[in-house]
Amino acid sequence: MSIAQHRLDAAEHVRPPTEVLLGFARCLRAAGVHVTADRERTYLDAVAAVGLDDPGAVYHAGRATLCGSPADLERHDLVFAEWFGGSRAGTKTRDPMQRPVTRAPLEGEEAQTGTGGDDEEIVKARSSTVEVLRHRDVASLSQAERESLLALYARLRPRAPRRRAHRYARDRRGVVDARRTLRTTLRRMGEPGEVQWRRRATRPRRVVLLIDVSGSMSAYADALVRLAHAYCASEVPTEVFTLGTRLTHITRPLHQRDPDRAVVAAGDAIPDWSGGTRLAEGLKVFLDRWGRRGMARGAVVVVFSDGWERDRPEALGEQVHRLSRVAHRVVWANPHRGRAGYEPVQGGIVAVLPYVDDFVAGHSLAAFEELTEVVARA
Amino acid sequence: MDPRTTFETAPDLAGALGGVGYLAEEALTTVAWLALRLGRPLLMEGEPGTGKTALAEALAEAMDLPLIRLQCYEGIDSSQALYDWDFPRQILHVRALEAASGGGPREVREVEEDLFDERFLLARPVLRALRESPAVLLVDEVDRADDEFEAFLLEVLSTWQVTIPELGPVSAATPPVVVLTSNRTRELHDALKRRCLYHWLEHPGIERELEIVRTRAPEVSADLAEQVVRAVHGIREDRELLKPPGVAETLDWARALHELGTRTLDTATAASTLGVAVKYREDAERVKKALDGMLTP
Lengths: 378, 297
Known about the structure:
The structure holds two protein chains of two kinds.
Chain A: H1 3-12, H2 17-30, H3 37-50, H4 55-66, H5 70-84, H6 120-124, H7 143-154, E1 162-171, E2 175-176, H8 178-187, E3 197-204, E4 207-212, H9 218-233, E5 238-243, E6 247-249, H10 251-254, H11 259-269, H12 279-295, E7 300-304, H13 313-326, E8 329-334, H14 347-352, E9 358-361, H15 365-377
Parallel strand pairs in A: 4-5, 4-7, 7-8, 8-9
Antiparallel strand pairs in A: 1-3, 2-3, 5-6
Helix pairs in contact in A: 3-4, 4-5, 9-11, 12-13
Chain B: H1 10-19, H2 26-38, E1 42-46, H3 52-63, E2 67-71, H4 78-81, E3 83-85, H5 87-101, H6 108-115, E4 121-123, H7 125-132, E5 136-140, H8 147-159, E6 161-164, E7 168-171, E8 177-182, H9 190-195, E9 197-201, H10 206-216, H11 222-237, H12 247-259, H13 267-272, H14 281-295
Parallel strand pairs in B: 1-8, 1-9, 2-5, 5-8
Antiparallel strand pairs in B: 3-4, 6-7
């Protein structure tokens, strides 16, 4: 049905086109697209410019004025089809399933046995490729527990690693700041005065946290997400992902001030909490979709994982090698390292160690403090 | 000439763009036309090599306007985007004044006013666009710049006016046509996005890409062009590639094969010239393996 027809139908109920279009914009907002009043206005202007008779043009006008990302475009197309009925004016839309998938491909679902797992804890939490989609079970904490946790994490003060910036800042050493020197000279009626100096300023480096939330890490996952929240709440530019059977970007839910709410929101966003693990696949997806494009470039990347890769440790090694080539520094935090008598003999860990700059523990708050130091000095 | 009224309808714009060798899908021409008509900046996102930058060049050529390009990079600031004072010339001027006046009394204020004269001003792209408007301003790879720069852009794009403290405000009589491109290495701020019309550019379909090769590289034989386009599409199907080849790579590859005197594309020539289209070693290995199946139907 064309829009003109829709308008005719609507005319029976005496609905002016503006109302139909605004209704569409509201509907789009309800579908989760960030449609603001100024966007609605631009949309109406755009539709007025292309004319209502051409459904294709109205469709393109909506995409151009109401959307701001590929995800928005997909939602727009779905809502457009619903609102204006069926036809999309013959325009190809991207099938959501054909996107470069974030989900790693599922392998066989054969029963898993701990391969060479003589450590009973590791056997218990053996890795599996069976994708268990399970939202995190938010254990209800008592008020006292909550407060003590808050106090503990408040002790962590993540600091950003610094890099040299492109810009210069006033300094006591460095190169001559000719402009500032001239300005001060002019202020003294041309009398030569003190020479001003400037030096390259520094900027915080981005910190990327990749948290393994698979079954073998379940004991630590909650604490690690809280640590990630501490980073997000600080001044450090941080991006957080979880790795399990899928890669999940949880930076946005973690950017809430209240740690409990943030952790709950992050838990809701993670579909594969305590599921299987496909570490190499997850890292690959991260590098392809985010890391190599810029998020990991020059960043300090911290991977929290026991490196428990089921069958292809060399694939994990390859991905960490790729990561080490784009990142400024790769820090690997393994909670098991904190235990007495730990030896990195696990296949996955052995494969990644050559490409890791720092290998630290990550099992206690003291270890977290040490980790924040390592990151800040990177 | 006001860019807002240059083209009466979107198909007019499509025709004009086609006339300068830029073949655009209907969606893109509609959005570009809307951007011209509403006087809004156009934000283009998409994979590298899909013709985001080329659109700005084509728009400038089609409307016969100067193209002013601002390449963004990390740490770019307003002195590179807007204006700067030519410091060495200012110093020279001060020295010349000293020599000429023979040490006679001169007000510092006067000297200073002299120094911040129009002739010591280095106009950078944004200021040039405002002054020379109507013009096409291309803000390339805006995702590479910092947040502060985005805020600065937002200010200019909403008011079409900048103020130079020493000289006063500069504003554009007709707003320039602004095209922003981004490779999505980071999310742009919503405030900037709201100012702009948004378009996501996909790789073109086989037919459209073939037309592009025919228009942009007419010297390449029709058979070879078709083979190259099909091969590139085959390569792009592989979702595992680090960097799928863009349209620019297709054109380069077709031209390279033509220069080598290739009539038909076979596995050996394809493998030896693959470096033109595929720029990562890992990708090259994958593609070489897949080429056999692609070229021997």
